[in-house]
Design a protein that fits this description.
The complex is a heterodimer. By secondary structure, chain A is mostly helical. Chain A has six helices and five strands; from the N terminus they run αααααββββαβ. Chain A has a three-stranded antiparallel beta sheet with strand order 4-1-5, with helices on one face. Chain A has a two-stranded antiparallel ribbon with strand order 2-3. Chain B is flat. Chains A and B meet through helix 2, helix 3 and helix 5 of A and helix 4 and helix 7 of B. Chain B: This is DNA replication complex GINS protein SLD5.
């Protein structure tokens, strides 16, 4: 059946966990592209056949055949675009949550163009931030308390924070200014402890 | 009775005073922006005032810390500051994410495009370029001619039929500040007008009340 592979591609995306990415399915993706080109060749040969001269016997069949190839092609294109578009949306939302660059385990799931896109996207956010002189990566949740309890996940060493100089050793549990801690949390170097 | 009504008007005065402070205005714009399916007008002067306010508050906090004011007072200031900063950042984030989602639609609709700030327009422009390049590389360059547009399915399409648009007929919860009387929800005049009373929450299709949101007569929750 035509356009079945494209459908599989879209299904694969929609069955994955929302907000998470499966590895880019290069194999299936290129198969669908191939199918598109196949439809296009069929379409063209039918069209030239129609133009050459009306063959009364197969006239209708040729017309409908051409139409079906056109529609299959368009459907394939929509599926391909939907796949790329929705993945791009997830990549963007990751870009908002995680400080760039994306961690290795996400990077390897992306196609090369997606990696490029993710890089460009965070550069775009950066340039907006510097223009507005506003850091948008902090304050992701409504603040309840200016201080939060965090656990340090990695040896960061002595750091001058906005109100104190703290020794951020691995496994240390500290009370920090929320704005100080958020940078480290988005880099995965700290986690917030909630009671 | 008299004293009752007097108290009522005093309450009204108080509430209208409270509801015109920048903090309250920012909160309202943030809530509206969060709940509305489409992008709303950028509150330029409000954002500018809030930014100045934040700077002022930051200075106050620093001064108070240096001069040894009661730490509790300072931390209250700090909390107020944190909240305002969160509102401002979240407001801008929501807008940017909306722009990302509907960039092509916003770009080609003049009315929506004009609602963006200068920086947001620049941002949208870059987003569109980024995504377009990504589409080209991954899909469109590999497709046959006449099927290469990112906005149209093929050259046969007369309109742009591949542009995601916000769903304007989704339901929103809203609350009127004052009684607005009977309001016609539907253009078709088939449904009866609904009377929107002050303070009561209603679940209505966004499409039918969006003009009230624009004019600030109704708040989204």
């Amino acid at each position: 059946m035509y356009a079945k592979k494209a459908c599989e591609l879209v299904k694969e995306f929609s069955s994955s966990e929302p907000g998470q990415l499966a590895p880019f399915n290069t194999n299936l993706f290129s198969q669908v592209i191939e199918e598109c080109n196949f439809h296009f060749h069929q379409l063209q040969s039918l069209l030239s056949k129609i133009q050459e001269g009306p063959d009364s016997q197969t006239k209708n069949a040729d017309h409908f055949g051409a139409l079906i190839h056109h529609l299959s092609l368009v459907r394939n294109k929509r599926c391909l675009m939907a796949y790329v578009h929705n993945r791009a949306e997830v990549i963007r939302s990751l870009g908002w949550m995680i400080e760039p660059p994306l961690p290795e385990e996400i990077q390897e799931k992306l196609s090369s163009s997606e990696k490029e896109y993710s890089k460009n996207q965070s550069a775009t956010i950066k340039s907006y931030q510097s223009e507005m002189d506003l850091d948008l990566a902090v304050d992701m949740v409504p603040p309840k308390d200016p201080y939060i309890k965090v656990r340090v996940l990695d040896d960061i060493g002595s750091v001058a924070l906005s109100d104190q100089i703290a020794n951020l050793a691995r496994h240390a549990i500290l009370f920090l200014r929320r704005t100080d801690a958020e940078t480290y949390i988005s880099q995965g170097l700290m986690e917030e402890l909630t009671d | 009775m008299e004293s009752g009504s007097g108290e009522g008007s005093m309450m009204d005065d108080y509430e209208s005073l409270i509801s015109t402070t920048d903090a309250e205005l920012l909160k309202r714009s943030w809530r509206n922006e969060k709940a509305a399916p489409e992008i709303l007008q950028f509150e330029l002067s409000l954002v500018q005032r809030s930014t100045e306010q934040i700077q002022l508050m930051e200075e106050t906090v620093e001064e108070s810390m240096a001069s040894g004011v009661d730490p509790l007072t300072v931390s209250l200031y700090q909390m107020d500051l944190d909240r305002t900063q969160f509102l401002l950042r979240s407001y801008i984030r929501i807008r940017l994410q909306k722009i990302e989602k509907y960039m092509a639609h916003i770009h080609k609709t003049t009315e929506l495009w004009n609602r963006l700030s200068k920086q947001e327009q620049k941002y949208a422009q870059r987003c569109i370029e980024d995504l377009k390049e990504h589409f080209e590389k991954s899909v469109l360059s590999k497709l046959p001619d006449r099927y290469k547009s990112s906005l149209k399915q093929s050259v046969i399409s007369e309109e742009d039929d591949m542009v995601p648009e916000p769903q304007l007929d989704t339901y929103v919860i809203c609350r009127a500040k004052r009684s607005l009387g009977a309001f016609q929800l539907d253009d078709s005049a088939e449904e009866n007008p609904v009377s929107l009373d002050a303070g009561d929450p209603y679940a209505i299709r966004y499409k039918s009340i969006k003009s009230l949101v624009y004019s600030g007569q109704i708040d989204l929750v």
